[in-house]
Amino acid sequence: MHIPSIPHSLILLTVILTATSPSSRAQGPLNPPGAPAPTMKSLQEIWDKVGTLQTTVGTLQTTVGTLETTVATLQTQNQTLQQQVTSQQKDSAALGLLLANANIVLPWQISTVDSGNGGGVGQYTSLAYTPAGQPAISYWDNSNIRLKYAVFNGSIWTSSTVDSTGAAGVDTSLAFTPGGQPAISYCDMMNGDLKYAVFNGSTWTLSTVDSTGVVGSATSLAFTPAGQPAISYYDITSADLKYAVYNGSSWTLSTVDSTGNVGLYTSLAFTPAGQPAISYRDDTNYDLKYAVFNGSIWTSSIVDSTAGDVGLHTSLAFTPAGQPAISYFDMMNGDLKYALFNGSTWTLSTVDNSSWVGTYTSLAFTPAGQPAISYYDGGNSDLKYAVFNGSTWTCSTVDSAGSVGNFTSLAFTPGGQPAISYYDDTKRDLKFAVRKPFVSP
């Protein structure tokens, strides 16, 4: 910003000429009646004030120049930092792929994120990575009856309260906005409402999405291609599967499936074409179902009805080729199962059948494009992880210290390694496991 200077001589000459010109005398005296006539002293005072103003202007110009330099320096430093973060993430991802291709399996590093001191903290977990590449978790604090959020800063976990009104915070689902801020869908048990929380950089903004009847359980949050939040959930009052999407000013609610008692264990994801799709349980017929929006209507179909009682704890994700895939629990046989659509039919396979396994499933795809699932082994009370290598599933135990592994949520680090948030039922703590050669998450 440039503020032009005014020469002293020009200002003084203007004052003198104005005061002595015939036109000014013809118009009458410059001074109000009774005011003293201008003197050399008063003109000197004007001169001094002009000098003071010019000094102030010069100081302001110097300050503005300094600020502009500082801003430019900060912008350069920020760009450099972003480039360094991007470079580190790329290097980490390349290392992860290299290790995976070399069939090198890293050890699991397990840490406690939040401790309830016996009161119970860490149920209904949902894990996602921040734009800066750090893990973040939404979860229910049963000890203090509240919704909480934890994020890793590179050295320690920081936990904060999101909503402490009533009994709000079960069935959480975490995702990051296009602007990089965390957002959470969850159920307010006290009022039977579906709620949504979003962080603005300093505080959480809480809003009620649906309050008609008892609603909001089994929530799943994702962002539309246009960057708006969308939520699938179960309407307990009407026993229907419902879908809510924000249009920029208000929420639009719609019923996806109302045939029987449907909509438990929902999982929401967007197709490559940008349309919402949901996996869920048909509790009337004990089936696994899948619904997809075509731009005008929802179409629901049965994925698995063969075992007699299937479709619990579903998790939906799309393959790199754009086909829907679902992990779920087969309660009839006590097995973990996986369903993959090939464009015309669903292919069903058993992932793990070792003694009542497969609840609390969470599905994600590895950087190499293979499906991976975190889940609870109820027979041994362990947290387990399964990954497909292109021909067979490899199942392994992640944590077996006590009764651990409920409420799992799986995501991959920027370096391509699996990470899982889960509940330790023995210690009643929120825990985090990641495959990494280093101690930190």
Polypeptide structure, described:
The chain has helices spanning 8-20, 22-26, 40-101, and strands at 108-115, 121-129, 135-141, 146-152, 157-163, 168-176, 182-188, 193-199, 204-210, 215-223, 229-235, 240-246, 251-257, 262-270, 276-282, 287-293, 298-304, 310-318, 324-330, 335-341, 346-352, 357-365, 371-377, 382-388, 393-399, 404-412, 418-424, 429-435. It is α+β, with helices and mostly antiparallel strands. It has two domains: 8-87 and 93-98; 108-435, Neuraminidase (6 Propeller), CATH 2.120.10.10. Strands 1-28-27-26 form a four-stranded antiparallel beta sheet, with no helix packed on it. The longest helix is centred in the N-terminal third of the chain and has 62 residues, at 40-101. The radius of gyration is 32 Å and the shape is elongated. 34% of the residues are buried. The model is unreliable at 1-27 (pLDDT under 50).
Number of helical runs? Answer: 3
Q: Could you give a short account of the major beta sheet? A: 4 strands, antiparallel
Shape: elongated
Q: Supply the CATH class of the largest domain.
A: Mainly Beta
CATH topology of the largest domain: Neuraminidase
User: Strand fraction band?
Assistant: over 45%
Domains (count): 2
How far is the first residue's CA from the last residue's CA?
A: 46 Å
The strand order across the widest sheet is 1-28-27-26
What's the architecture of the largest domain, going by CATH? 6 Propeller
The chain-level structural class is alpha+beta
Q: Can you count the beta strands? A: 28
> Which regions contain 5 or more consecutive residues with pLDDT less than 50?
1-27
User: Helical residue percent?
Assistant: 10-25%
Q: Radius of gyration over alpha carbons?
A: 32 Å
> Average pLDDT value?
88
